[in-house]
Amino acid sequence: MSEEELIKKVFHENGMDITDKSASQLFTYYKYLVEENNKFNLTAITDFKDVVYKHFLDSALAIKNFKGKVLDVGSGAGFPGIVIAVLNPNLKITLLDSLNKRINFLSELIKILNLKNVEAVHCRIEDYNKKEEYDVVTARAVANLSTLAEYLIPFLKIGGNAVIYKGADIFEELESAQEAISVLGAQISEIQRYNYENNSRALIILRKIRKTPGNYPRKGNLPRKKPL
């Protein structure tokens, strides 16, 4: 079985069918990730099968939540943004990261995969000036929920959704983030859960219901240092 066939098999066994082109792009992604990881330490996961499950499939299982104009905050090595872009070329996706070496990696990867629907932007989220512009904002393995709420919600249009990737045990984070979510103009819309290859994941979906006060996200790393 070829690497592309294995990718298709893993996706199919988890309820998702992908095209030959997408499978080929994901394998190309894997090869470039491993090559560049030796220079930039982009991920601790480098075994092919592990990357397919823990990065590619994990990112993709949330795809039904993505529409329109998407912002991926703290994109890192491109999860979930690049995977979502490969699977749905009709989306318009911005990858945002504060480290220039990651943006250089992502920019080159976008060229290699010939993705016309993605841009990579070097910027701290506190300094990003496109508030209230996105249909969906997302983050994976970035920060606790209170902090993420402040990073994500200000950039959503009213009616838009924040899609937040978390582990299975989210009760305490949900409890402690309730006030922050409310202050920022959103509410918990849905918790989606899924399992694959002995892994459990929760997706927290926040719906924006009113405009966020203009002073958020706070500068000086305050969302991390002093969460709402």
Radius of gyration: 17 Å
Number of helices: 8
Shape: globular
Helices and strands, in order, run as HHHEHEHEEHEHEEH
CATH architecture of the domain at 67-225: 3-Layer(aba) Sandwich
Helix proportion of residues, in percent? 25-40%
Mean pLDDT: 94
The profile of the biggest β sheet is:
7 strands, mixed
Question: Residue ranges: pLDDT <50 for 5 or more in a row?
Answer: none
Name the structural class: alpha/beta
Extended strand count: 7
Strand content: 15-25%
CATH superfamily of the domain at 67-225: Vaccinia Virus protein VP39
Strand order of the largest sheet: 3-2-1-4-5-7-6
Report the top-level CATH class of the domain at 67-225.
Alpha Beta
Topology, element by element:
Elements: H1 3-13, H2 20-40, H3 48-60, E1 69-73, H4 81-87, E2 92-97, H5 100-112, E3 118-122, E4 134-140, H6 145-152, E5 156-167, H7 171-183, E6 186-196, E7 199-208, H8 222-225
Parallel strand pairs: 1-2, 1-4, 2-3, 4-5
Antiparallel strand pairs: 5-7, 6-7
Helix pairs in contact: 1-2, 1-3, 2-5, 6-7
Explain what you see.
- The protein has a seven-stranded mixed sheet, sandwiched between helices.
- Helix 1 crosses helix 2.
- With 228 residues, the chain is of the alpha/beta class.
- It is built from eight helices and seven strands.
